[in-house]
Amino acid sequence: MWSYPINERTENTGIAIGDADNDGQNEIVVSLSWFGRKILMVEYSNGDYVVETIENTGGDINSIDVADVNGDNLNEIIAGTGWWATYDVRVLKYENGGFTRIWNEKIGWTQARVGDIDGDGKVEIATVSGNVCSYTSLSGVVLYYLQ
How far apart are CA 27 and CA 17, in angstroms? Predict the structure, then answer.
């Protein structure tokens, strides 16, 4: 068994498994809320697990996923955020040795999931948000097409 203590006041709100950095190996991507407010990646390397902070989000994270959402055959990390100033859905891509935010949409307290909803072979980002802390008239279910 392996474990990683999170030594700060936080709430673990999500976990995803996928090849987040496109190196051919799956990683564990963890989202932290409350006072943690960050995305962590756990990677198995050279016989041990390495934990890296991908992004300090500035707000609670309501959902996390790993998928190729822009059709370039490389995975991205998709996060839906909420409380404490962010209120968006964001996409992070591993480029040049680190993660970069390549897209975000400020829509309100958000959860996001990915999948091919319409059967066209392309992945969509599905979001759901309420009208509390909303930054757009698009509360409810919204689909984003990045391909």
Answer: 6
Report the alpha-carbon distance of residue 38 to residue 67 in Å, rounded: 19
| Contact indicator for 96, 119 with CB cutoff of 8 Å | no
Side chain identity at residue 44, one-letter code: Y
List the structure tokens of 113.
């999931």
Q: Report how far residue 144's alpha carbon sits from residue 122's, in angstroms, rounded to the nearest whole number.
A: 11
Asked whether the beta carbons of 111 and 63 are under 8 A apart, the reply is yes
Note whether 91 and 146 are within 8 A (CB). Answer: yes
Q: Are 75 and 19 in contact (CB under 8 A)?
A: yes
pLDDT tens, residue by residue, 69-80: 999 999 999 998
Contact predicate 78/66, CB 8 Å: yes
The answer to whether 59 and 34 are in contact (CB under 8 A) is no
In this prediction the pTM is: 0.83
d(CA 94, CA 147) in angstroms, rounded, equals 18
CB neighbours (10 Å) of residue 32?
Answer: 23
- Find the distance separating the first CA and the last CA of the chain, reported in whole Å: 40
